[in-house]
Write a structure and sequence with these properties.
globular; mainly alpha; binds zinc ion; about 65% helix
Length: about 475
């Protein structure tokens, strides 16, 4: 399952504000320009792969205890950055454009170099001193400007607003927030190579990727490419990187074929979910019968309405890899979205079991249980969804489904609270406050539910978010 959502965290913490700031930097894809809140993508398979890519690097950097998360941004441009010390942001475009695990791992190693190098503490200080409202306005402007430049439409309102925002004296702050000093870049390169070497991996992918951004005339001509904006890539830097990367004993080491296959599967999935159908079939023509191509075909088939054909394609995928939880997840998602929630339950149960209880897949199972309209499933749905939101608190889907399950049970206090939490995570603060206020009147004062509702009522909206 791959779905789009707005990411929110508890607003009382500085990190939450910084998260919102960081996401605002990312240019918003045109399809989601109307959407409230910063768009991210959630997908159990992709996130699991990125976690596995990152874990050894973070361990080598001494950051394994920091619980650093990878956030996938809904943007097809190549970009990756860190902004709040707790998350590494990766555009799905960076995954799509990385042909090997080693290439994206190299980028993640470089970003980890920024984290480990403390390139953020100064940033944080500056952020804390500057007015939050101003920073967000500026970053939104910068993001919009990049988006406007990329869409080739300099005359739209967003692009003009962006140009106005960066033309001011705040230019320096903007630069400080979204880009690094050259010295920091070189240090992050060096640290990244060190982490790769310490984990027995080649830095060739990192070098290849960065070289592409210096040499490729397409990128160079565009100038405003987000990755080049946030990570200046002069040719001397790439030359220095080549030298240290080449000196690694692992320069020639190739990715494990099994890992390469998982990488290709994720790229096929992202393409099939995010790109127009003709693009998907251009990348993965029907004559291509590799597993990734068949994955892309199955997803594209279900997305474009042919459930029967999609299901038979998914079944052949399952025959090829019977232990792959994401094939069962796809089967369940296709059935659920095809209006057959009762049939979706069995494959989703299997996917939950095979994935060691992935909370995102549990939410999908909860959704299927609720969608059956069968009251016999209500308690089970509540149990599963509560467990899921307990481990994955930033996905609104879990709370939306929980609200429906509680509503079915007649527990309107819990239903209102869960609806409020979902609205809050979507960045819809007005609805969140209204629902939380109503929930407060349904709970006894001081009970855990009342306290949670009260927290939402009292939460201050983030500047630049929907405070209306
Ligand atoms: Zn960098």
């Amino acid at each position: 399952m791959l779905f789009r959502q707005a990411l929110r965290t508890k607003p009382s913490k500085l990190t939450a504000v910084l998260t919102a700031v960081a996401l605002a930097v990312a240019p918003v894809s045109s399809a989601f320009a109307q959407q409230k809140g910063p768009p991210t993508l959630r997908d159990a398979e992709t996130e699991q792969l990125l976690r596995e890519y990152t874990r050894p690097i973070l361990r080598a950097a001494g950051l394994e205890k920091q619980n650093i998360q990878i956030v996938i941004i809904n943007d097809s441009a190549f970009n990756a950055f860190v902004a709040d010390g707790r998350r590494i942001f990766v555009n799905y475009g960076a995954i799509m454009q990385s042909e090997t695990p080693n290439q994206i791992i190299g980028v993640l190693a470089h970003e980890t170099g920024h984290l480990a190098g403390g390139h953020l503490s100064k940033l944080r200080e500056q952020l804390a001193q500057a007015q939050t409202q101003m920073i967000i306005a500026m970053l939104l402007g910068a993001g919009a400007m990049v988006a406007g430049a990329r869409s080739g439409n300099a005359n739209n309102g967003l692009a003009n607003a962006g140009a106005a925002a960066v033309a001011g004296p705040q230019e320096m702050i903007r630069r400080t927030l979204i880009s690094y000093q050259r010295q920091q870049e070189e240090n992050a390169d060096r640290a990244g190579v060190k982490f790769l070497t310490a984990t027995g991996q080649s830095a060739k992918g990192m070098y290849d990727t960065f070289k592409r951004f210096t040499n490729d005339t397409l990128f160079a001509a565009r100038g405003s490419d987000p990755y080049m904006m946030s990570h200046p890539m002069p040719s001397e830097r790439v030359a220095a990187l080549e030298e240290i990367a080449h000196s690694s004993p692992y320069w020639d080491r190739k990715d494990d074929p099994a890992l390469q296959l998982r990488h290709d599967m994720v790229r096929a999935k992202v393409s099939a979910f995010m790109e127009p159908q003709d693009t998907v079939y251009r990348r993965y023509p029907l004559s291509n019968d590799s597993l990734p191509a068949r994955y892309a075909h199955a997803i594209a088939t279900y997305r474009h309405g042919d459930l029967r054909s999609a299901l038979s394609q998914i079944d052949t995928l399952i025959q090829t890899q019977p232990g792959n939880p994401y094939f069962y997840e796809l089967r369940g998602q296709a059935l659920l979205e095809g209006g057959k929630p009762a049939e979706a339950i069995a494959p989703l149960r299997k996917a939950v079991a095979l994935s060691n209880n992935s909370p995102l897949i549990e939410m999908l199972l909860g959704q299927a249980l609720v969608a059956t309209d069968n009251k016999a499933y209500t308690e089970e749905a509540i149990t599963i969804l509560r467990a899921a939101v307990g481990r994955e608190s930033e996905a609104p889907l879990g709370y939306t489904q929980l609200a429906m399950a509680y509503g079915r049970k007649g527990d309107y206090a819990q239903a209102d609270l869960a609806s409020a939490q979902a609205a809050f995570l979507r960045g819809d603060n007005k609805t969140a406050r209204e629902l939380a206020s109503r929930a407060k009147t349904r709970f006894a004062v001081g009970t855990p539910g009342w306290v949670k509702a009260d927290d939402i009522v009292a939460a201050k909206p983030l500047p630049g978010q929907s405070s209306n």
